[in-house]
Amino acid sequence: MDALKSLKTALRRTIVRAAPALPASISGSDWYFRLSGRLPADTLGVVAFHRLPDNQSTCPICGQPGITHAAPYPSTREPFRQWLVYFCTNCGTGHVPNAAHLLEHTFEGGFSDRLVGNRLVPPEDYFSDRGMQENASGFARAASQAKALKKAGARLGRVLDYGSGPGYFLKVAAPETAFAIEPDPDSAKYLDYLGATRLDEDALDEMQFDAIVASHVIEHFTETDVVRRVGRMVAALAPDGRLLIEVPQGGHSRLHLTARDDPHTLFFTAAGLRALVERAGGQVVACFVRSKATHQVREDAIYRPDPNDSFASTLGGGLTVIARPSA
Q: Is 209 found in the same domain as 74?
């Protein structure tokens, strides 16, 4: 209990305004709690780590004991700045405990509108030369992913874009048959324009695909269902199919990161992403970083990857793994 009190005190000192009294007794799976204090308005990234009193809890990403530290969620936006992130010293990945509660109303109303950008442009304008130039980064990422899939042996026949948004990848890759899973209703007109069949996640149990792309999607999953949901993607691959997953660099446990993270609930390192895909039944055939941008290593890093593992020790972003079903 003394360790818990010390952690509460240390966490309060990382915020500008003191939080109200925290529960007197917090243990086991109920140990997570929210802070109602606020990070400074100009704060970006994780400001400090604090050791958890219950050391070596199992990481939901790599499946190994290693959850040893917590930090305030790296955001100045509500409701995220009131939450904690737990970090694993084995794979370096962070997760928001009980994230389903955090996400319960996140994608409603104005916040969702800010996330998805302008969905009022007609599809024929959105996918015109000018429209693609205005959204050049999204289409460039998709072109890079399509090239990587082909290099890894994928056939772009029956292709599923999981979390497709308006369909950057499907437009660029031009598969023989296009499918999409996308909850944003404002993206439907763009997917219809591209001739994509819109599916819900349950369809994964009944279909097989030559390639599945999940680009900047799974960092929004919760810690309790990410292995299962990625496993469904792997299981939906044809025997020689390929799954490409890309996530942003989330290694706050080692690197100085200043990009906006909300509404992320998982903060992947390269090693964590690779371990997750393998736990979900995938056989990794390629792993690389797409972004050339690099980040500085923190002096107070709590995670130190194998320096001989070039992927795990990367300083770059756009962490990407391509996998096939395990034999």
A: no
Instruction: Tell me whether residue 113 is in a domain.
Output: no
DSSP structure class, residue 196:
P
Q: Per residue in 38-95, pLDDT tens?
A: 444 444 566 688 888 866 689 999 999 999 999 988 888 888 888 899 999 999 999 9
Domain region containing 93: 2-103
List CB contacts of 308: < 8 A, sequence separation 6 or more: none
pTM of the model: 0.86
* Strand stretches in the chain, DSSP E: 50-51, 57-58, 65-72, 84-88, 94-95, 158-162, 177-181, 197-198, 209-215, 237-247, 266-267, 282-291, 317-325
Q: What is the sign, positive or negative, of the torsion defined by CA atoms of 220, 167, 116, 106?
A: negative
Whether residue 116 is contained in a domain is answered as no
Task: Compute the half-sphere exposure of residue 241: CA atoms within 13 Å on the CB side of its CA.
Answer: 22
Q: How far apart are CA 103 and CA 312, in angstroms?
A: 29
Confidence of residue 248 (pLDDT cuts 50, 70, 90): very high
The reply to whether 29 and 76 lie within a common domain is yes
